[in-house]
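#structure-requests
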Amino acid sequence: MSNTYLFAGASSKTAFATKQILQEQNQTVFGISTKEEEGNYNRFYKIGSYEFGNFPDITEPLNGLVYFPGTINLKPFHRLTENDFVNDYKINALGAAAFIQKYLPNLKNSPNGSIVLISSVAANTGMPFHSSIAMAKAAIEGLTKSLAAELAPSIRVNCIAPSLTNTVLGEKFLNTPEKIEASQKRNPLKKIGEPIDLANAIEFLLSEKSNWITGQVIAVDGGMNTLKL
């Protein structure tokens, strides 16, 4: 049976990798992004921002939602401005809330409705210079658990929490051989995550293979959150 999924932040590498997996299974994937389309979505919408009132109307029933937009804004705490905190919170947390609120009615009749959000290892592991993004991503984890309780048993809500991944957001931390080697050495599995690593986890959480999983924050991070070697 073909399902229909809707992605916000559809121009990201991780969204594209997830879309490829689903379309290879003959699933339908709609995309929303503030950027131009990349990747042959079944339908694509370009919007100005991920804010309440900006998401397009979609009439079709949906089986799953994934919110991909995020930020990596690393600065010493004393250098973070009010605008830094507000921008990180708006894109990561308020954007996710607006997206879900807009399309929750489309999920209501799905026999296996699933929502997947994206946090960060920094929400649970203290890391210097991460205070703004850690605050915003901790809000995502709180939203995941609260909505999972509110929407059970009809809709599952889960979250993945990656560490540094080879995406556009991570580029500035991986743009030299020295930075790549240092990042690999810090990771318990001695590797940097790739978009497909996250996509595989997201596809699992969208599918019926995870139909007894909800309210979970799943680390996809090479062990960064739990292991100290």
